[in-house]
């Protein structure tokens, strides 16, 4: 997702707790497993519903990533 979608006032200012992000990543993992299972069973309606939730989660995570300030690079000597 492009930073174009993140409002200027939020760019570089969002701080989201790491456990929230991890919870979403875990949920996405489970969603992908369910999507694959339903695809294999030919159950398109259920598959589509899970794909919509996965898409929403991915857009949210991308928005957070675009709005989060970059971590300072570690200096190695």
Low-confidence stretches: none
Between the first and last Cα atoms, what is the distance in angstroms? 34 Å
Share of helix, binned: 55-70%
Largest sheet: none
| DSSP helical segment count | 2
The fraction of residues in strands falls at under 5%
User: What's the Cα radius of gyration?
Assistant: 16 Å
How would you explain this protein's 3D organization?
- The chain has two helices and no strands.
- With 77 residues, it is mainly α.
- The protein has a domain at 15-67.
- Helix 1 runs antiparallel to helix 2.
- The radius of gyration is 16 Å and the shape is elongated.
- It holds the Pfam family SSXT.
- Belongs to the SS18 family.
- This is SS18 N-terminal domain-containing protein.
Which features does this protein show?
SS18_N, SS18 N-terminal domain-containing protein, mainly alpha, 77 residues, elongated
Would you spell out the secondary-structure blueprint of this structure?
Elements: H1 18-41, H2 44-67
Helix pairs in contact: 1-2
What would you say about this model in short?
The protein is mainly alpha-helical and 77 residues long. It has helices spanning 18-41, 44-67.
């Amino acid at each position: 997702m492009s930073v174009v979608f993140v409002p200027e006032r939020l760019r570089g200012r969002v701080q989201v707790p790491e456990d929230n992000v991890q919870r979403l990543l875990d949920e996405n993992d489970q969603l992908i497993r369910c999507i694959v299972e339903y695809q294999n069973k030919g159950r398109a309606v259920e598959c589509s519903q899970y794909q919509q939730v996965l898409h929403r989660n991915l857009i949210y995570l991308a928005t957070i990533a675009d709005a989060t300030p970059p971590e300072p690079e570690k200096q190695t000597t």
